[in-house]
Amino acid sequence: MREWHVEHMQNTVTKYVKGLPENASGWEKRNHKKYGGLLNMCRQIEYDIKHGATLEQVCGMFHKIRNDSSFSELREGAGCMGRLGQVEDHFTKPEITTTIPWY
Predict the structure, then answer these.
(1) Does 98 fall in a domain?
(2) Considering the entire predicted model, what is its pTM?
(3) Most CB within 10 Å of its CB: which of 18, 50, 67, 101?
(4) Are the CB atoms for 58 and 10 separated by under 8 Å?
(5) Does a structural domain hold residue 72?
């Protein structure tokens, strides 16, 4: 089952990074607007991490998308690297929390 979650995580990220095709149908556009955003995609990855994928695998996949030749056509798309950067920031940057004094 862990392998499935790792594969699902990779498919989710590549789908998000690839974006919506130019000749998308109305149905695809509606579904992308409803479910294709950064927040939904990050929720899916967090679900996969909860069920077997590790954070190291997530970071390794980001590195693989940036540097591996098998993802070269994915990197050529408009805005792809920006979307990948957004996802990387969500999973690699530490969250800054501020404490509010109780008094």
Answers:
(1) no
(2) 0.79
(3) 18
(4) no
(5) yes
